[in-house]
Queue: 2 jobs
Job 1
Amino acid sequence: MTNQNHKHTALRILHLEDSPEDHQLVVRTFKQSVEPVEIKRVDSLADFDAALNESVFNVVLADYRLPGFTALDAWALMNQRQIRLPFVLLSGAIGETAAVQAIQAGISDYLPKEDLQKLRHVVQRALEAHAVLMAKELADVELAQSERQLAQFAEHLQATIEQERSAIAREIHDDIGGSLAAIRFDLSWIERHTTQAESLVHVRAATDMLQHAVEASQRIMMNLRPALLDHGLGAAVQWLAKNFSKRTGIETLVKTQLQTEKLPSPIELTVFRTAQESLTNVSKHAQCSLVRLDLTADRSFITLEVADNGQGITPPGGNQTGGFGLKGLNERAKTVGGWLDISSAHDAGTTVTLMIPLADSAAETGENPS
Ligand SMILES: Nc1ncnc2c1ncn2[C@@H]1O[C@H](COP(=O)(O)OP(=O)(O)OP(=O)(O)O)[C@@H](O)[C@H]1O
Ligand SMILES: [Mg+2]
């Protein structure tokens, strides 16, 4: 699609010019070049098109006014063919209107014919600028591609982690949960059949310990795979907050306003994991006394806000090197079409906000607003 500069071959110039004399002047200018130069002249749009199709050029020189068309038409044709070449207007006075039009169209190089002695320099500059532009565009494309790959990788990683978590949760449930249930059964049997006071004390102590183990395994399972999500996102977030408060002693206020039916699971899981990681961050970094969780959803958006009254993120913008929690949340939000916003001020707390547009809103905008 692009005609690139081949270093060891001649510089190939396509000259759009109806005057053979003016063309000869250009040819003479390039005669003094050390490097070999090939110049082809065309004077109609059809020939210009054919020349571009037939061979590779490095640069186009174009007179402005030609019989029946202007350089702008040639430029438009080149763009239409998706051929990217440096394009130098080499013309007599073209007037301000035409100059403005040329600039608006994207042509940036113009040399009046009377300044012909500068032509080689102008062409060289145009070639260099074009090479830089091409390199930048290529870099942009590569960057976009690697960003896409990174996003895909993050999505894949997240999915793998969730699967792994589910598998571990299932094992805890089936294996440890099953064993604990069996122990409970046996302990209660012993309790019923023992008359010895000393044994009973031990059995009850064991039963208490067992209760603790059951609760711990349920909590671990819940963190791994929020089964509570089956009962609704609100309930699951409430559970997270209650547990967090119990574990850390930080006062936790929850407000939920969900005016929607059950949301798609990836969205619910994203919200849940965002709340989970944000609370973990609060306990690790915030040194605060209060955290508020605000969960609202209407037909167009679901929003989660986790705000603490702690010391804020230092340095601002978060830890650039270590720490993948917030980066992970960012990527995760994108996978469901949402975004994450983190605002923080020194000693004025940190607020993490997740917003996800809901499918309903897309459907609404597509509808006839009658
Ligand atoms: N609520 C908060 N209050 C104060 N600082 C915070 C808060 N949340 C995050 N930070 C700061 O932002 C940084 C980045 O957070 P992030 O969750 O990405 O990483 P982490 O918690 O350090 O490590 P990881 O989450 O990977 O275990 C943290 O290291 C911390 O300095
Ligand atoms: Mg973290």
Job 2
Amino acid sequence: MQYELIATSTFGIEGVLAEELDNNGFKRIRNENGRVVFGAEDDNLTETIARANMVLRTADRILVHVASFEAHTFDQLFDGVAAIPWESWICQDARFPVEGRSQKSDLFSISDCQAITKKAIATRLSKAYHIDWLPESGPLVKVEVAVTKNVVTLTLDTSGEGLHKRGYRPEVSQAPIRETLAAAIIMCSKWNPKRPFMDPCCGSGTFPIEAAMIAANIAPGINRSFIAEQWPCLDSSVWQRVRQELKDAVIEPEDLHIIGTDIDDSVVRRARNNAARAGVGQYIHFQRSDLRDAKSRFSYGTMICNPPYGERIGEQRDAELLYKRLGKVFAAEFGTWSCHVITPCSTFEKLFGRQADKKRKLFNGRIRCDLYQFFAPKLRRPATAVKPEKPQDGNDVEKV
Ligand SMILES: C[S@@+](CC[C@H](N)C(=O)[O-])C[C@H]1O[C@@H](n2cnc3c(N)ncnc32)[C@H](O)[C@@H]1O
């Protein structure tokens, strides 16, 4: 039997997620808004679910597509849901909360859709298990009923906590970027671990940490658990095996040059702690520094930056000054580098002093942003040679 699995993502990064699925050998079926659908067979279902949860850096969660059918009335919804063999997914004592969504449909009351779906599943399970009362004291199976243009889609969440929760970032700075979005931006930058990497406004260290995890081939989910690990229908030994295989695949990269700097000392300390927790502390140099002093003795590196947005009244001018400063420093000191900045500022290119080579619409949480990408000039040396240029004296920032 062929199963459809869904990797959900932030709007704007579906293409990156699709590429990640392809590169990891998943059988991609189609891309949709905010999600990518891929397949699994009977004999590799658990392995595919476990692997997708553990290896995908840009997915928010992994869902199982259970069924879709048309419904215009609550009777049709009840009958359609009750016809599904829920007993193959939901064990006798499982807790099965139902979340709902409705869009452009006759069944517009979300609470009614949830209640009817719950009742239909309970009726089906009671019959299947020959019991009148379902204790709901066991493993958690989160069901979602989504009705869009009168088509009902039922999915199960296998992840539990969102996949951005890698477990390394209990200490955050102000406005930290989601780990999944940070990984997507690094992938968009086409950074090669043989090249230097810098985030001059690193906050809690998300970009440098995600970059180091990519370089060390550390799968983002190996140090956390997923709710589907508790489902009796999915063999728990497979989860353990996949986790161990991924742990064995971690490498110790040599000659990594990753630096994160921030003007705030306490934030830099938190970034260091986070990197240590992620197991990449040894690969990143964190330092307190104002971005106006940023320099590097290396060429052809990648700079990624999530600067302050100046959203609060009175802060916008500071943000604009910072963008101007970033543009000046980048032009003066990083002539051979590429630069990738995520910000909602529509006049960023003017302030930075250069037109972006590429602009990509993204959402940072609920904030609609652009990723402004300034590409590096064409490389004149072979791709593997990253030779330090002559060190310059008087730098505030340790040279990467
Ligand atoms: C939006 S936060 C970055 C969040 C980070 N990406 C994360 O995931 O935690 C912006 C950061 O820029 C830093 N910052 C502000 N002005 C700066 C300056 N002049 N030089 C360096 N860092 C600065 C702030 O301290 C703050 O940590």
